[in-house]
UniProtKB/TrEMBL annotation:
The keyword Hydrolase applies. InterPro entries: Class_I_gatase-like, GH, GHL6. Coiled coil: none annotated. This is Family 10 glycosylhydrolase.
Length: 687
């Protein structure tokens, strides 16, 4: 058998994916030719359409596979689609969803369905108006999702249709208390399944998903090994109303039963302005979905709507555009998800916006093909709030960074970064202490945000403090004071102090440890901070309580921050806290940072390299979210380090095609870009 998983397979080339989430009632109006032509006009080269699971969009012979009753008589719609797309060189990915099915099947095969603790099934959308059958959640370990329906359906489609890929919607196992799941849980962990899904072992649901998808994956590879399977991965732990708890995934667990992975960065605005997703969500999801070798790129699925309750209208264009652009700018593959197809999409702005983004991607995708991230800083990553907030600080300060997953600590890879950040709560275990010590000994720099006494005493010698650490109460009305040696942290800030709140771990530094910042304790209780000013003097303007300590260790340095710095930045968005973080990283990583710029914090920058090219993406997120306007930025300047012995041949504005001027000097190139609208990529061509 020819092994097509090696070498130049289609899914290792640049892709622009468009998923039509079809409604069965629209089936009769579908014209395959027209849909394929419009897909091509939108500059997509991969299409994803409903094929099996909830509804079969072909005449399936598998029992209990519900055939779409709106399929036209005497025609094979699925075949028509595939032919029409293939004629235009558009790959066809078949979407399957075995997570729910009909009440008629439930009555015949109740053992296939997921159960609450009280054994009742999970109904899905039982209050939906209209003449619909009732859906119920299936169990990931049951026959429907495995050998009885899932496997034969997959085989039936692969044997009869020339599909190019398989995508699983809603593949995750949801909490299930059926006898079979309880038995499996007991076998795996040697204890009874807890009553509350929140108390499940942290890898249980992931394990159930892996087992189930493994069965499907094998079925695919048995029939047509060249067909890639695309599976969701979950970059953050979260909870949803429909499916319950989602645990953050290990991407390597997902790759064990998949060829490609995808994630959603749904821009849910319908939860209200206090609940809108982090601005950096897509870029962070893409960074968290990269493998160590950077060989396979994650898909970033972006829904066209401002929340599923408003799935029939589009996201505001000025918000939608840069949100989508973050995916390719973070080296992910765009995957547009729309409700219906062009004839039924009545908000035509969705079509215009997707087309605009795809055409921008076309301009830069060949340059980006095979490019690798280039970064100064490595952020240790376990999907925590602290990690996200540090990522936000780094993005706003244009500091180039990569993530290293807690489940894949790699000393050799870590050694290649100028500075490493270990955020609050990131556990030092399984030999990480030795890895960090070796890294710093060899000249690396570590920024350690440690917020519990145990976290500090665990590595006291490394941090350069006594083992005696005590945590104080939450302080208001207090400040961080820059000491003489802390001057680099206040660079660009003409002040002696910055705002502070929080709990301090009181440390006693070794004599050789440099104290860069100290605490100015509360000048007044919170209730009288405003009045009277006559008594607003600071009673103790100077203490020796350290808030930042720099310790030399081997050839390198450790900067210990003994309080929750990331929350200070995230809670108040004061520029000082971002600026100080930048200065701390600069202090650690040296003057020669890859990218230096005074661009506004709302512009996201990401940097990549190839043999004779440096590529810099600029995505304009300037303005208050959700963005009501596109605010162009003019005269953007930046300075980029160029590799030794290389020289600049040209600098191009690849997407925006704006004017660029540049000057090379002392191993760097100074670039001036006239204008940035939404997204641009600068290519620095080297010789
Ligand atoms: Zn079950």
């Amino acid at each position: 058998m020819e092994d097509k998983t090696m070498g130049n397979v289609w899914w290792k080339e640049p892709m622009r994916v468009l998923q039509y989430n079809l409604q069965v009632r629209d089936t009769p109006g579908m014209d395959a030719e027209k849909i394929a032509r419009e897909t091509e006009e939108m500059a997509a080269n991969v299409v994803v359409m409903n094929v099996g699971g909830i509804y079969a969009w072909y005449r399936s012979k598998v029992k209990y596979h519900h055939v779409n009753e709106f399929l036209p008589e005497g025609r094979d719609l699925l075949q028509e689609w595939i032919d029409a797309f293939h004629k235009r060189n558009i790959k066809f990915v078949a979407r399957f969803d075995f997570s729910i099915t009909d009440d008629t099947t439930y009555q015949q095969k109740p053992q296939w369905f997921a159960r609450h603790k009280d054994k009742s099934p999970y109904y899905r959308g039982e209050k939906r108006m209209g003449n619909w059958s009732l859906f119920l959640n299936t169990c990931a370990t049951g026959g429907y999702r495995n050998e009885e329906v899932g496997v034969p359906v997959i085989k039936e489609v692969l044997e009869n249709y020339d599909i190019d890929g398989i995508f699983f919607n809603a593949p995750f196992a949801s909490a299930c208390f059926c006898e079979r799941c309880q038995e499996k849980y007991l076998q795996k962990y040697g204890k009874e399944m807890p009553d509350n899904p929140d108390d499940f072992e942290s890898d249980w649901l992931s394990y159930c998903t892996k087992e189930n998808i493994g069965v499907i994956y094998k079925a695919i590879k048995d029939v047509r090994p060249e067909v890639p399977m695309i599976l969701y991965y979950c970059p953050f732990t979260s909870k949803t109303k429909a499916f319950g708890r989602f645990d953050r995934d290990n991407i390597y667990d997902r790759y064990a039963t998949a060829d490609l992975i995808c994630t959603e960065s749904q821009n849910v605005l319908s939860n209200g302005i206090n609940e809108i997703p982090e601005t950096i969500h897509p870029v962070l999801s893409m960074k968290a979905g990269q493998t160590e070798d950077g060989e396979l790129l994650p898909f970033g699925i972006i829904h066209s709507c401002p929340g599923m309750d408003w799935r029939h209208v589009g996201l505001p264009e000025n918000e939608y555009l840069p949100w989508m652009c973050q995916v390719p700018a973070a080296n992910g593959t765009i995957w547009h998800s729309v409700t219906g197809y062009n004839d039924t999409i009545t908000d035509k702005r969705i079509i215009h916006t997707i087309t605009a983004v795809d055409k921008m991607i076309v301009k830069c995708e060949q340059d980006m093909h095979g490019a690798k991230s280039k970064a100064d800083v490595l952020l240790l990553w376990n999907g925590s709030k602290a990690g996200k907030n540090w990522a936000d600080i780094l993005m706003k300060e244009h500091i180039q960074f990569d993530l290293m997953h807690d489940y894949r600590i790699n000393k050799e890879r870590l050694m290649t970064y100028k500075a490493v950040i270990i955020p609050e709560g990131f556990p030092v275990k399984d030999g990480l202490d030795k890895v960090l010590a070796a890294y710093v000994s060899a000249g690396g720099s570590l920024l350690a945000e440690r917020c519990e006494p145990d976290e500090i005493t665990q590595l006291a010698d490394f941090f350069g403090v006594e083992k005696n650490v005590q945590k104080g109460e939450y302080l208001y009305a207090s400040y961080m004071r820059f000491e003489g040696k802390g001057a680099p942290i206040k660079e660009g800030m003409d002040t002696d102090k910055a705002a502070f709140r929080g709990e301090v771990n009181y440390c006693i530094p070794f004599r050789e440890t440099e104290v860069l910042m100290t605490l100015v304790p509360p000048f007044a209780p919170m209730e009288v901070v405003g009045a009277p000013p006559e008594r607003a003097s600071i009673p103790t303007p100077v203490t020796d309580i350290p808030l930042a300590m720099l310790h030399s260790y081997g050839s390198g340095k450790v900067l210990l921050i003994p309080f929750n710095y990331h929350m200070l930045a995230a809670s108040f968005h004061l520029k000082d806290h971002y600026r100080m973080a930048y200065n701390m990283i600069k202090l650690l990583s040296g003057e020669d940072m890859l990218l230096k710029t005074n661009m506004p914090s709302g512009i996201q920058t990401t940097l990549y390299e190839k043999d004779n090219q440096i590529l810099v993406h600029l995505v304009n997120e300037t303005g208050q979210r959700p963005l009501m306007d596109t605010i162009p930025v003019y005269s953007l300047s930046c300075s980029i380090a160029i590799p030794e012995k290389k020289h600049v041949m040209a600098v191009r504005s690849v997407i925006g095609e704006e004017n660029v001027s540049y000057k090379e000097s002392a191993g760097r190139v100074e670039i001036l870009l006239d204008k940035l609208e939404v997204w641009d990529m600068l290519s620095i061509d080297l010789k």
